[in-house]
Amino acid sequence: MIYTVTLNPSVDYVVQVDDFQLGTLNRTRRNEVYPGGKGINVSRVLNRLSIPSTALGFIGGFTGQYIETILQKEGVRTDFVTTDGLTRINIKLKSEKETEINGEGMEIPSEKVDAFFQKIDKLQRDDLLVIAGSAPRSLPKDLYEKVAELARKKGVKLVVDVSGSPLSQLVTYSPFFMKPNHHELGELFQREITNVAEAVHCGQQLIEQGVEHLVISMAEQGALYLNREGVWKATVPKGTVKNSVGAGDSLVAGFIGTLAKTNDVMAAFRFGVASGSATAFSEDLCKREDVEALLPEVQIAKL
Ligand SMILES: Nc1ncnc2c1ncn2[C@@H]1O[C@H](COP(=O)(O)OP(=O)(O)OP(=O)(O)O)[C@@H](O)[C@H]1O
Ligand SMILES: O=P(O)(O)OC[C@@]1(O)O[C@H](CO)[C@@H](O)[C@@H]1O
Predict the structure, then answer these.
(1) In the chain, which residue ranges form alpha helices assigned H by DSSP?
(2) Ligand 1 atom at shortest distance from the alpha carbon of 274
(3) Cys-Cys with 9: which of 37, 260, 285, 288 at CB 3.0–4.6 Å?
(4) DSSP letter, residue 297
(5) Which residues are catalytic?
(6) Whose CA is nearest to atom 22 of ligand 1?
């Protein structure tokens, strides 16, 4: 079974404003609302690929209720801890450029954290636990590590899509799968990654440290897959980007979902990349038919 953890879910308020101006009244041409947060996006995409998962994390207030209602309507299983706070609203402003304003998240009291750990404690050996996105500032700094520690004790496989210091903490738990983008990878190694050779060099160190499957995404510049046997590079399909929010999460879902179904890493890599691009070319997250249509455009070569 696949479980996704979103410690800091969000309602994503996506607004299109033509010629956005700071410091004045702007009016939207289009606005939409989606349940958001990285783990939640992974669960939604898995569901569209007919792969069941359970979404875990903390929700609160009318925004939290909205997320749960939509997920359940779509058929995603949820097992959130409900708090008295209010799930954040993240603004995704589309104008000449994409601008994001993400909330810091709500206060989560310690008894709610205990309730969350009780849910993690129910996972079984060989379950996949996807840890994705930021943590609200109120949570203890070592919370991700504690989740990873419990997962390790239970023989649960970790999938990691976080950035900053949680990434450097979690990498030491030999994740089954990790998907940093090249900026996150650079931050982890405290250097700038400007080309494929540099990305491969850092990626190989992660494989040596015990990461089993690693994808390094580089947006429209392609993606790399590394394991103990080698390094592969995929081209990404060309298209018009409508909304890149959730592209990385879609890659994660496409990869782990296909791997769980077929046990074929190259099929998983191809499907993951096509899923990321299909989301980038859609208003919301990708649909299965859009992903399948892009598969022939993903060319994979061993380096
Ligand atoms: N401009 C683009 N054109 C085609 N595909 C894209 C584009 N941007 C993203 N993608 C697809 O999405 C995948 C993930 O994108 P990216 O490397 O930006 O990850 P990310 O930074 O984790 O994404 P995000 O945080 O926006 O969800 C890429 O590997 C690619 O398949
Ligand atoms: O603030 P975080 O947790 O780092 O990222 C949250 C977020 O930007 O990530 C998702 C896209 O990947 C969005 O649905 C959501 O708003």
Answers:
(1) 38-48, 61-74, 110-120, 143-154, 165-170, 182-188, 196-208, 247-262, 265-280, 288-294
(2) 31
(3) 37
(4) G
(5) 249
(6) 248
State whether residue 296 is helix, strand or coil. Answer: helix
pLDDT confidence bin for 112, thresholds 50/70/90 = very high
Pick the residue whose CA is nearest to atom 24 on ligand 1.
Answer: 248
With tokens 């308020």, the residue in question is 13
Beta-bridge partners for 82: 59
Q: Note the maximum CA span of the chain.
A: 56
Looking from the CA of residue 38, the nearest atom of ligand 1 is: 27
Distance 187 CA to ligand 2 centre (A): 18
Q: Which neighbouring-strand residues pair with 136?
A: none
pLDDT per residue over 181-238, tens digit each? 999 999 999 999 999 999 999 999 999 999 999 999 999 999 999 999 999 999 999 9
- The closest residue, in CA terms, to atom 9 on ligand 1 is 219
pLDDT in tens, 243-282: 889 999 999 999 999 999 999 999 999 999 999 999 999 9
Domain ranges of the chain: 2-302
Q: Is the CB of 54 under 6 A from ligand 2?
A: no
Global pTM exceeds 0.90:
yes
The amino acid at 241 = V
169 Cα–ligand 2 center, Å: 20
Superfamily of domain 2-302: Ribokinase (3.40.1190.20)
